[in-house]
Amino acid sequence: MKDSNRKKVLMCAPIHYDIKYSINPWMKDYDEPLNKELALAQWLRFYSTIERINDVTIEVLDTAKTPNNCPDIVFTANAGIVHNNKVILSNFKHPERHCEKPFYRKWFEDKGYEVDEILESLYFEGGGDCIVVGDKLVAGYGFRSEHIALELVAEKLDLELHAFKLADPRFYHLDTCLSILDPETGSGFFYPKAFEDPKALKKILKLKSVSKRDAMKFCCNSVVLGDNVVIPAGSKKILEFLREKGYNVFEVEMSEFIKSGGAAQCLVLYLN
Ligand code: ARG
């Protein structure tokens, strides 16, 4: 297994995290109310799990000035997509998340990234819906990002677009149903039923299928950093598969973020 070039991630502490509206099925479908203290504890444990991985730097978005009406800013995967020090900022579909963009923009500008965006009327939700695999931009569309938006993003990043239509509203972002283990070769795992044409993915990526049970535990929403996989707790089968393959696997409890339709990968944006 070769060393990944993913060495830097952006995170945001769940200071303003809450479930104040419902923009995906998970946000109205949970039994116990959101436990904010537990959310903070889960996030801190997740943070320290990543912090302990060799050679990985965590950048943290400062939310001191973020208004309280921005409860989803913790999901930094949706800030945009970064490639070669260039970021294409997201255009959130739902007005509830529009407040986040200026904070992401400022952070990238301050850090010296080349900041770009596409026409504001075209929906695009960044690392939630696309991932760089070699010279390809692998993307999902249909719920939060539009195909045309992905075409423009791929063009701006000089990547070849491979976009797949998502089919299940519970798996409304690509990162809820596809995890890429090796960003060079495109090996990974996915939940086939979340895609309109799962066979099309298998043509370009080397994918293992996961069960609905594991997918519902957000196993595809894993963070992969080199040989390390940080996976939402409860997916025994895929966990064993990853260990057999030689990955260091770290399970993290994500119950409070799953209530908002997100988990580990959603809380992280790959910066390279
Ligand atoms: N509540 C958030 C939303 O619906 C969750 C975002 C999850 N992010 C992700 N990358 N899948 O937008």
How would you describe this structure to a colleague?
- The chain is of the alpha/beta class and 272 residues long.
- It has helices at residues 36-51, 101-110, 147-157, 198-204, 212-216, 236-244, 255-258; strands at residues 8-11, 57-60, 80-83, 86-89, 114-116, 130-133, 136-141, 160-165, 178-182, 187-190, 206-209, 223-225, 228-232, 248-252, 269-270.
- 47% of the residues are buried.
- The model has no long low-confidence stretch (mean pLDDT 95).
- The protein binds arginine.
- Residues 23-24, 27, 72, 75, 77-78, 97, 128, 173, 175-176, 260-262, 266 line the site of arginine.
- Arginine is lined by residues 23-24, 27, 72, 75, 77-78, 97, 128, 173, 175-176, 260-262, 266.
Shape: globular
| Rounded Rg | 17 Å
For this entry, what is the oligomeric state of its chains? single chain
Class per helix and strand makeup = alpha/beta
Beta-strand level of the residues, as a percent range? Answer: 15-25%
State the end-to-end CA separation. 19 Å
Q: Going across the major beta sheet, what is the strand order?
A: 2-1-15
Order of helices and strands: EHEEEHEEEHEEEHEHEEHEHE
Q: Residue share in helices?
A: 10-25%
User: Quick one: how many beta strands?
Assistant: 15
List segments where confidence is low: pLDDT < 50 over at least 5 consecutive residues. Answer: none
Number of helices: 7
Instruction: Say which molecules are bound, naming each kind only once.
Output: arginine
* Overall pLDDT level: 95
Profile the largest sheet.
3 strands, mixed
